[in-house]
Amino acid sequence: MGNSREAIDSYHSRGLLKRSPDHLSAARELIESWVTAGGVQVPKDHSILVQTRKEAQVLNLAAQSERKRAGELDSKQTLRLGETTFHVRDRVMFHKRLASLHIENGHQGEILRICPLRQTVHVRLDQPKPGTPAVVGIPLKLFQSAQTTLGYAATTHKFQGATTEFAYVLMGGSAIDRNMAYTQMTRARQRTQLFVSDAAAGDHFENLIRSTAKERPKKLAHDLDQRIG
Q: How much is the CA Rg of the chain, to the nearest whole Å?
C-alpha cells in the first residue's frame, strides 16, 4: 500500500487529484477540465479513461456536446446509429476487428466524411498498420458491425497499451485495483488528472489508497478481460 499512498499523495499535492461531492459531480469536473485544457480543439491528445461502458457513453456524449457547441463538428454531415449521432470530425473507437480494412479492436480515428449515397464512412486512423493507408472508407454495415462508438472516452481496459498526451481519469468503483490504477496513471506522456467522489476517496483519501493498492486474483482478472473484451 506504500506505493499507492505515495502516488495518491503526489497527485494531490500537485493539484492533479480533484474530489467532488458525488460521482456525477466528479464527471462534470472532469469534462470542465478537459474543455479548459484543450480537449475540444485537439481531442486526440486528450483522452478520458473510465471504468464502465456506461460511464464511457455518458462522457462521450458530454465531450461531443462541448465540441458541437464550440463549432468543431460538422452538423450537416451526420450518421445516426442506435442512440448515437456521429458527425464529421467526431472521434471514434472501434470495438471489433475489421481484418479486411486492417482495423483492430481498440483502434481510434477521426471521421472525415460521411457519404449517405455510397453508405460509406471515411475515417483517418490514429495509428494505421505499417504499409496501410491512414484514411479508410468503411462500408456502413462494417462501421456498425465493429460496434463503433464515439472515441473521446473509453474504459481503461481499452486504453491498455495505448498512450496519449493528456489523460483524465474518472476513478472509483468496485473494479479498480492496483493493475487498473497503474494503467490509468501511466497512459499520458505529459499529464494525468484524477477525479473522484468523496465516497470513493474517503477521509484523507484512505478509501482510494486501499482500492488502488489491492491485488485482483489472476483468474478473476482473466474472466473480467473475457467479458469486457
A: 18
Q: Could you tell me if 162 and 187 are in contact, meaning their C-beta atoms sit under 8 angstroms apart?
A: yes
Second CATH level (architecture) for the domain 2-65+152-228: 3-Layer(aba) Sandwich (3.40)
* pLDDT tens digits along 70-102: 999 998 889 999 889 999 999 999 999 999 999
Q: Where are the domains of the chain?
A: 2-65+152-228, 72-150
Q: How far is CA 164 from CA 56, 152, 153, 202, in A?
A: 17, 12, 12, 29
Cell 480533484 belongs to 18
Residue 101, phi then psi, degrees to nearest 5: -110, 5
Quick one: fold of 72-150? SH3 type barrels. (2.30.30)
Sort 14 into a burial class: Cβ within 10 Å, 0-12 / 13-18 / 19+.
exposed
* Span 123-168, pLDDT tens digits: 999 999 999 999 999 999 999 999 999 999 999 888 877 889 999 9
CA 22-162-16 angle, 5° bins: 35
The three grid cell numbers given for residue 209, joined into one nine-digit string: 489508497
Contact 99, 81 (CB under 8 A): no
